[in-house]
Each structure stands twice: as structure tokens, then as C-alpha cells.
Specification:
Length: 154
Amino acid sequence: DRASHQDVDLHDGLDATLVMLARKLGDGIRVVKDYDRDLPAVPAYPAELNQVWTNLIDNAADAMRGQGTLTVRTARDGEFAVVEIGDTGSGIPPEVAKRVFEPFFTTKPVGQGTGLGLDVSWRVVVNRHHGDLQLHSQPGDTRFQVRLPLQEPR
């Protein structure tokens, strides 16, 4: 039921997710890929990380309502790989931002969101991969930053 734990090229998963969501992104959302191609492979569960990328990119597309720029960035920060998903939507107000990782919390209308995507993403990144997931938002610049260790935790 679960893909094995292996060394993963994060760019492959990000690119696959962008292809899968291309129809949702449509012609009105410009995708900018700013990849650090020197980033080493990360020990991870690839299917679980792909679910994180799907949740983050899908939410970004919703926030931009068909128009804007989606930026997918990778970098190395010391002993961590960093993946940042950014959008140019309206932003997330502070009172909402402090709750986005809570299970069943959603700002979407009934029938359009379960409130589980960011909760699942948090659990995959933090609990399963021993990383960190942060949100930085202001109008026109919302970024979710995923930090994953480059080495297995001891």
C-alpha cells in the first residue's frame, strides 16, 4: 500500500505533480520553476511527498482563481532541502493562517474542501519525514516552505 522509502529526486515529483495539475492551472497561471539542480536526493517516501506537492499546488491554484504566477523553488539550506510553493493570490489573513494546519479547517465553500489537505501535508512533512512546513503570506505573495533533512535522522 505504501511506496518504499528511497532516495528521491524532488524535482521529478514536483514536475510530475505540475503535469498532473496542468489542466487546473490552465492558461491563466504562469508556472515558474526555480530549481537548484545541485540539490541531492532526499531520503523519503515519494508517493507521500507527491501528495504534499499536490495539496500545496492545488491550493495555490485555487487562491489565484485562474490568474497569476505559481513559483516552485528548490534550494539547499545546510543539511536540509527546501521546497517552496508560492502564489500571487490574495494572501491568507493572519487569523486564518494560524489555523491552516488544523484538521477539518477550511475556507472553501461546503463541498469544495475537506480541510484535510494541509493537515495531511503537515503530518507527512513533520511527523513522517522529520522536516518542517511553514507558511508566509501577505497579499500577492503566499509561500509554503517545506524543509526536508538530507540525511536520515538518527
